[in-house]
Amino acid sequence: MSTTELTSRVQVLGAPGDRFDEILTPAALDFIGRLARTFADRYRDVLTERRRRALRLSSGSPLDFSLATSALRADPHWRVAPPAPGLADRRVEITGPPERRMTIDALNSGAQVWLADFEDATSPTWDNIIGGQLNLRDAIERRIDFTTPDGRGYRLGEELATIVVRPRGWHLTEEHLLVDGRPVPASLVDFGLYFFHCAQRQIDAGSGPYFYLPKLENAYDARLWNDVFVFAQDLLGIPRGTIRATVLIETVTAAFEMEEILYELREHSAGLNAGRWDYLFSLIKIFAHRPDFSLPDRTKVTMTAPFLRAYTELLVRTCHKRGAHAIGGMAAHVPGHDAQADGAALAKVRLDKEREAEDGFDGTWVAHPGLVPFCRDIFDGVLDGRLHQIDRTRDDVHVSADELLAVRRTAGPPTEDGVRASISVALRYFDAWLRGTGAVALDGLMEDAATAEIARAQIWQWLRHGAVERDTVLALLDDEIAALGAEYPWARVDDVRALFERTALARELPAFFTPDAYARHLVQHAGVTA
Ligand SMILES: CC(=O)SCCNC(=O)CCNC(=O)[C@H](O)C(C)(C)COP(=O)(O)OP(=O)(O)OC[C@H]1O[C@@H](n2cnc3c(N)ncnc32)[C@H](O)[C@@H]1OP(=O)(O)O
Ligand SMILES: O=CC(=O)O
Ligand SMILES: [Mg+2]
Q1: What average pLDDT is seen over the chain?
Q2: Beta strand 326-330 with 269-274: parallel, antiparallel or unpaired?
Q3: Is the C-beta atom of 248 inside 6 A of ligand 1?
Q4: Distance from the alpha carbon of residue 493 to the mean position of ligand 3, in angstroms
């Protein structure tokens, strides 16, 4: 089949934008078409399996390590690939959306890695998705710069962070690109466009096409990614094993399959990350119907909670046993927004990062450039000149299924302030997201899609278990909607309220707020152009 025939069945429904034609070339669209067609059935299977598993768990099926893969876990011999160029030293990784100015700031931040995020930190408007791809390509070609209206100039320095791209998860589709009349899985769009345009450029620059994989639920998801990598590398003539991917362990089911996930991706694996915020969200969601899994105010659930300690300890042990990096999670404090609160908040961040480094993590995440030297110093203090501590096997760690699920020891009712804070965060974040911004600082904390999911899911769970009265929630909702409108006269209060009602107050808890909000508010078809 010729390229033209293939391309003619790839339709671009998003509006044209400045230089979008440099990304949406016929050859790139053909590549996306091939990916989408090749993996269409597997993708549907992944989603079906996720739904079945969620149903089984919500109807009381126990969650445990799989007997079927016990031999793989017991086999001491296999290892993942050694660290790839630019990925040995990952002491500090800065995350953020691939927005033009932030791209430059993140690359210059002094962090070892920049996670260019199309998932939790990006509202997936068509402009953000294709604009982000342009920024990445411009950055790799070192032809990215930016000038503010008041004349402040931004350009790349000499020492840059290694770029690692986080595509959207398997739960999202890209409705502005159709292949054979169907929307393309968003994961394949973000991965495919970046890989097509930047893989060879990255290799030529001495690094590689590297990825972070979000919201995996099991090893089956990882196998699909691995097969996508093999197919994409073969198609572009790039040697197998060039891609490296770090998987976020940010669902409870994935925590029971860490070794299996590393194994599926082993020639492409760059380790695991403890994605703490989505992990909490996943716990709330999967056990939404269980009163003993109902957590108190978010501020009271810290990484020292026994069930979270079990998860991070198991992650480090698993990674180091298999020669892989273990990367820590995000402390949500945004420095510099509240001088009075900064001191106490930084003291908490210090404890959190010290614990990670001492537990054996090889690096950690920051959401803000102001935290890069702070966290690097903490890791340097423990690493003592080494780039990582993968050789520190944690044979002392033994984590059982019960320990991973020992939420009841932390469970408890919310306070009224906690309920109000969750409603307020969800509303203010939804408003930002609907207007195209995927990460914001609210009350000195970084809020993104993962933390907003926690906020609205906690409200649902508290209502479900009678921890708060519906009338109280409705009264607080009225208050917070009024406050949002007063603070931001341009806020989309009606859309935000309706989104909150559908995702926090409905009879059943929707799996994510993003597919609903995306379909209703971000999809704008401009017409068929290819
Ligand atoms: C749960 C998870 O998945 S965590 C990962 C996903 N979430 C994220 O990646 C969030 C990333 N962080 C951010 O987006 C931002 O830090 C925010 C929105 C939280 C706060 O941003 P701001 O309010 O602009 O912070 P602030 O005003 O202090 O920024 C100071 C400067 O640092 C820059 N900056 C802040 N955060 C970042 C970042 N993550 N990457 C690059 N530059 C950044 C700002 O652009 C600003 O630059 P300027 O001085 O050139 O104008
Ligand atoms: O993606 C990271 C998380 O904490 O969620
Ligand atoms: Mg996440």
Answers
A1: 95
A2: parallel
A3: no
A4: 26
- Dihedral (C-alpha) 40, 45, 50, 55: value to the nearest 10 degrees? 130
How many whole angstroms separate alpha carbon 330 and alpha carbon 106? Answer: 16
Segment 366-413, tens digit of pLDDT: 999 999 999 999 999 999 999 999 999 999 999 999 999 999 888 889
Catalytic residue selected from 138, 278, 352, 448:
448
- Tell me the domains of the chain and their CATH numbers: 10-65+89-403 (3.20.20.360), 414-522 (1.20.1220.12)
CA-to-CA distance for 212 and 218, rounded, in angstroms? Answer: 15
Lowest mean per-residue pLDDT among 78-92, 165-179, 213-227, 281-295: 281-295
C-alpha pair distances (Å), 465 with each of 38, 292, 310, 339, 341? 44, 9, 26, 38, 34
Strands (E), 313-372: 326-330, 363-366
**What is the C-alpha to C-alpha distance for residues 523 and 530, in angstroms, rounded to an integer?**
18
Residue with CA closest to ligand 1 atom 49: 105
Q: Is the ipTM of this complex over 0.90?
A: yes
Max distance between CA atoms of the chain, in angstroms, equals 65
Given a contact cutoff of 8 angstroms between Cβ atoms, the answer to whether 115 and 135 are in contact is: no
Q: Residue 20 Cα, ligand 3 centroid: separation in angstroms?
A: 28
Strands, DSSP E only, in 268-385? 269-274, 326-330, 363-366
